[in-house]
Design goal:
The protein has about 220 residues and is mainly alpha-helical. It contains 11 helices and 2 strands. It has 3 domains: about 1-50, Homeodomain-like (Arc Repressor Mutant, subunit A); about 50-185, Tetracycline Repressor, domain 2 (Orthogonal Bundle), CATH 1.10.357.10; about 185-220, no CATH class.
């Protein structure tokens, strides 16, 4: 029933236009009553984005199942890949929705609100991981915004190709910038009696300012 309503809605959107299509039109084509429509979708806008609630729930569960040893930036990048997989499940529908959203200002605004919810989920996880560190909240929010920006840049590029390019490669490339800028292995402390030595393990190509920031953060935390 849910899929039938989505199919009927998009058929009408393409034939008549989004603004000219009503909920009554959708249920008439699908052969169901208005009550059935609102059992699945709170509004006409929601029928355009039928899978985001499920994806947001999957992302929240994925982050909630994280282990304390998981590198946090890598974890949020992997969480963003769940959104990509949702789009890639049905490329034709995703491209169709992208084209429709570009034409309807109200849908663009709705999409931005959905993106904001993804970003908040990532930021909340990172805030918990960076709790107690200097600028922990700031770091969490900046990284979450960077992950969403990188993911969406690659996703839109794939959609503009009509779903023909390699979406996974594009997103991996974009998220690689985020990991290079913010991702580090967790610092390890080696106890030497009354004093501590902080050892930071970082990639060879990590910028010096990032290494210094990690040292300062760990010293401030301890």
């Amino acid at each position: 029933m849910r899929d039938a309503l989505v199919a009927a809605a998009f058929q009408l959107f393409l034939e008549r236009g989004y603004e000219q299509t009503t909920v009554d039109d959708i249920v008439a084509l699908a052969g169901v009553g208005r009550r059935s429509f609102f059992r699945y979708f709170p509004s006409k806008e929601d029928v355009v984005f039928p899978d985001h609630e499920r994806c947001l729930a999957d992302m929240t569960a994925f982050l909630g199942a994280s282990d304390k040893d998981d590198e946090p930036v890598r974890r949020v990048c992997d969480a963003a890949r769940l959104v990509l997989r949702m789009y890639a499940e049905n490329p034709a529908f995703s491209v169709q929705r992208y084209r429709l959203t570009k034409k309807v200002p109200g849908l663009r605004a709705y999409e931005l609100s959905v993106v904001w919810r993804y970003e908040r989920a990532l930021a909340e996880y990172l805030r918990a991981r960076f709790a107690g560190r200097r600028d922990g909240i700031l770091r969490a929010d900046v990284i979450a915004a960077a992950v969403v920006a990188a993911h969406n840049n690659a996703l839109r590029s794939w959609l503009r190709s009509d779903g023909e390019d390699d979406a996974e490669a594009a997103v991996d490339h974009a998220l690689g910038y985020v990991q290079a800028a913010f991702g580090t292995l967790p610092p390890h402390r080696v106890s030497t009696g009354p004093q501590d030595v902080v050892v930071v393990v970082a990639r060879r190509d990590a910028p010096l300012w990032r290494v210094v920031q990690e040292i300062e953060s760990e010293l401030g935390h301890n």
